[in-house]
Amino acid sequence: MTDGTSGARGKMRNWPQALLLVIVIVSLVFAYSQWAAKQRLEVAVGNQYFRSFFDLLGNVDNVRVALSKSLASGSPRLRVGALSDVWREASNAQANLNNLPVTHKVLARTSAFLTQVGDFAFTTARKVANQQVMSEDDWNKLVDMKKQSEDLARGLADMQAQVSTGKVNWVRVAEQAKSEVKPKPGTSATPDVVKDGFTRVDEQVQTFPTLIYDGPFSDHIEQIRPRGITGAEITADQAKEVARRFVPFDASSHSATVEENIKAKGDIDIYRVRLDAPKRSGKPDAVVDVTKKGGHVVLMNVARDLDKKTIDLAESVKRASAFLSKVGMVNMTPTFASEVGDVSIVPFVYTQDGVVIYPDQVKVKVALDNGDILSYDALAYLTSHTMRRLPKPSIDADEARELLSPALTVTEPARLAVIPVETVDTPEAFCWEFRGTSYGEQFFVYINAEKGTEEKVLQLITTSEGSLTM
Questions:
Q1: Is 392 exposed, middle or buried (0-12, 13-18, 19+ CB in 10 A)?
Q2: Exposure b/e, 28-40, CB count within 10 A at least 16 = b
Q3: Can you spell out the DSSP letters for 79-148?
Q4: Cα 202 to chain centroid, rounded
Q5: Predicted pLDDT of residue 165
Q6: Which of 108, 152, 209, 210 could potentially form a cystine with 464 if both were Cys, beta carbons 3.0 to 4.6 Å apart?
């Protein structure tokens, strides 16, 4: 009896140990299952990143090949096809780049380059399809883009060896990108292989000439006869005075020299005035292009070193607006501001009777260290500006809205706008402008206010350097 009682008591004393053992076993099984599930997830995620990287390599190489074909094609039909391939492959490359677990800060220039190459190819393809002759500038840009795509392809290929040998753990790369913390000494340096590799690629892209797309219709058709250049002929001495008054600083002590027999785009005769600051004055030099007819400033560039950024894009728009008012440019509305390095590019368009006139555009460059005006470009404005006879809309905003895609959600009130179109006989169209979103992306849609037809659709692409449209 005593033995039975003591045995039972022993079992009672041992049951916590047994329960603990069961809990430990269950915990280990659960932990292993969690670990195994995590491993399977990491493999799946890693394979997805791996595929995106190699798809990116293929896309960039296809962009290079298509650009080469567009240059070699003598047939407009084949050239349109090649440029369309550039646009499609650049878009796919952008998508695959965005899928990689690398911070946008590291890939900012590469991303912008791919977007802009696609944008330019798409615009040029439409021009060729509409039987317009490509300009010398168009050809030069295609040549430059081909060289840049070759450099980009080589930079990515240098990373391929590291990725192909399995030295890259994409999940660790993703974790580091999220935390932005450098790996501790002794831990895997795999993430740096990717980050450093893409950093080198992006630094290489930074040597490319920056392509600026300044919102809707910044690249409209150049008219043969500039409509905004009016007035009597001026002399070289008068051009000097125009330049001194126009620059955003006191240039009374600057020496002025004039180059003649120069033409701006659109076959515009200009005086090129160089303003050189006195030595040790601390003032910048400047170059101002002044039209011989009427003394209009086409272009101004101020040369000086830039310090650390202290103002934002919103402030730069205010500074640019104030400068335009000072030089007598009235009724100008800013469209988009883009930040490129230590400067901002602010495009403005003319507004007539509440209608936005996109062809009449002026671009102002602002230093982000102190808000100084660095450049002014009024070529587009002087090329197309005139007081237009604006018709009365045949359809109102509500009627135009009914013509929009049901997939577009309008986010801002409609407004009337004159836009350039890619036809020689009718270079402009009078439209209702709608801004909206569709499946998470932003668009501008233009409905012809006279014909009631959809005239144009532009996608708004947001980058680290601002906004641009396709």
A1: exposed
A2: eeeeeeeeeeeee
A3: HHHHHHHHHHHHHHHHHHHHHSSS-HHHHHHHHHHHHHHHHHHHHHHHHHHTTPPPPHHHHHHHHHHHHH
A4: 15
A5: 63
A6: 108
Amino acid in the structure at residue 350: Y
Phi, psi of 189 (to 5 degrees): -95, 10
For residue 182, what pLDDT is reported? 46
Amino acid 382 reads L
- Averages of pLDDT over runs of 10 residues in the chain (470 residues) are 53 63 68 57 58 81 85 78 85 76 59 77 80 81 84 76 62 58 44 56 51 46 63 94 94 91 75 91 90 94 87 93 95 84 88 94 92 92 91 96 91 94 70 90 88 82 48
Nearest to 115 by CA among 95, 94, 98: 94
According to DSSP, the β-strands at 285-291 and 297-303 are antiparallel
Residues 6+ apart with CB under 8 A from 324: 330, 332, 348, 362, 364
CA distances from 251 to 245, 270, 283 (A): 8, 20, 9
Q: How many CB atoms lie within 10 A of CB 64?
A: 22
Torsion of CA 207, 211, 215, 216, to 10 degrees: -160
CA proximity to 242, closest of 269, 273, 277: 273
